[in-house]
Design brief:
By secondary structure, the chain is mainly β. It contains one helix and three strands. 6% of the residues lie in helices and 24% in strands.
Length: 79
Amino acid sequence: YTYTGESGTRGLVALGTDFPSKIIRLNPNQYGGKIVCQKGALLCASHTIDIEMEFAKKFTAGFFGGEGFVLQALTGDGD
């Protein structure tokens, strides 16, 4: 999403959730080049980050693990 306002204007963007959580900045290169997270866990990323589908390896993950079968894999250079 790109917002283009009038020249010289300034603003503030606030992000939040209705679930208690913490927003942290991660770089995939610091985690072996790939971060696997729950589907929907990504809040925002630079245009150099690729989002791919990842599947849980264990069948029981969807029932007992809480994260389900479908996960997100984040790869690329950037934050």
